[in-house]
Amino acid sequence: MSEKCKPRPSRSQGNPFWRGRALADFTKAEWESLCDGCGRCCLVKLEDEDSGEIHFTDVGCRLLDPATARCRDYGHRARRVRDCIRLTPESAASLTWLPPTCAYRLLARGEDLPDWHPLVSGRRASVVEAGVSVLGRVSALEDELPVEALVDHIVAWPGKVPKAAKRGRSKKG
User: Fold this and answer.
1) How confident is the model at residue 2 (pLDDT cuts 50, 70, 90)?
2) Residues 161-171 pLDDT 10s
3) Which of 31, 57, 67, 81 is buried most, with the most CB atoms less than 10 Å from its CB?
4) What is the bridge-based pairing of β-strands 140-141 and 54-60?
């Protein structure tokens, strides 16, 4: 695939498709195009049984390709990974483990897409440049480690907005 993202967002009255609409009104293609391909949601997360707090790890789902930050079998992921969550317009606002940079989470909260998002920048590489992608940051895949070793892989960065990404926040317009 070329550096340019395809398809480009449709614009009506000068606004991109994601502004001024409810997530539930998006077409399937529009919905899928919101994913920036960072791979953060494909990192294994641990929940503290006592507090309910979610902890990210730097361990990827068994289907995550660390070289591309993409799912190796996106179309069949829910069948192949039992606990893979299918994101919906209803769940986008309530899932506390979605990264703070996630377009679904941002739009569900009434925020706009950041300048580094591929739909805004027109380039997939902008996600890596902003430091949002998991490229080069996945230490292992979940099948490569015993479950009890996951706690040793807890990291904070997936739950934070990188400095370069903070500089790339666009204003709602």
Assistant:
1) very low
2) 999 888 655 54
3) 57
4) parallel
**Confidence class of residue 121 from pLDDT cuts 50, 70 and 90?**
very high
Global confidence as pTM: 0.85
Residue identified by tokens 């606004």 is: 15
